[in-house]
Automatic annotation (TrEMBL):
Record domain DnaK suppressor protein DksA N-terminal: where: 24-94
A Pfam family: zf-dskA_traR
GO biological process: regulation of gene expression
Molecular-function GO term, any one: zinc ion binding
Main function: Transcription factor that acts by binding directly to the RNA polymerase (RNAP). Required for negative regulation of rRNA expression and positive regulation of several amino acid biosynthesis promoters.
Species assigned in the record: Profundibacterium mesophilum KAUST100406-0324
Subcellular location: Cytoplasm
ZnF (dksA C4-type) residues: 102-126
Main location: cytoplasm
Protein name per its UniProtKB record: RNA polymerase-binding transcription factor DksA
Signal peptide positions (record): none
Source domain of life: Bacteria
Presence of the UniProt keyword Glycosyltransferase in the record: yes
InterPro entries membership: DksA_N (IPR048489), DksA_RNA_pol-bd (IPR012784), DnaK_N (IPR037187), Znf_DskA_TraR (IPR000962), Znf_DskA_TraR_CS (IPR020458)
Length: 140
């Protein structure tokens, strides 16, 4: 049986420790889980607001403004729903031992990049190459 890894609240992954060791994996799992929880709480609040917010607004301009606000809120929630799916995929990669490695090159993704964007699947260099290729094809 594997010993439980203790992680302090102020822990930050460091370059001088083994890449994707138990502490780093626990750190990123916690970061992803908290992010997902925050997104789901926001979604729950939105749903409650939409259910409670059904009102009869006689002024056409006010009604249009409220509908625009609701549409914007729903688009935001849709983006967050997609983000939750990416978070779930990152958590699966942690479970499978693939987290932190570039899907394109297999090289480690920098800890700074993962800390800033824990759902990253490409190293910075691979991401830039991907974006350049995407831009070239979009211009065609």
């Amino acid at each position: 049986m594997k010993a439980e890894t203790f992680l302090t609240d102020d822990y930050r992954p460091a370059e001088d420790e083994p890449f994707m060791n138990d502490r780093q994996l626990k750190y990123f799992r916690r970061k992803l889980t908290e992010w997902k929880s925050d997104l789901l709480d926001d979604s729950k609040t939105t749903i409650e607001g939409l259910q409670d917010g059904t009102r009869n607004i006689p002024d056409v301009a006010d009604r249009a403004s409220e509908e625009t606000d609701r549409a914007l809120e729903l688009r935001t929630r849709d983006r967050q729903r997609k983000l939750v799916a990416k978070i779930d995929a990152a958590l699966r990669r942690i479970d499978e031992g693939e987290y932190g490695y570039c899907e394109m090159t297999g090289e480690p993704i920098s800890l700074k990049r993962l800390d800033a964007r824990p759902i990253a699947t490409l190293s910075l260099e691979a991401q830039e190459k991907h974006e350049r290729r995407e831009k070239v094809h979009r211009d065609d």
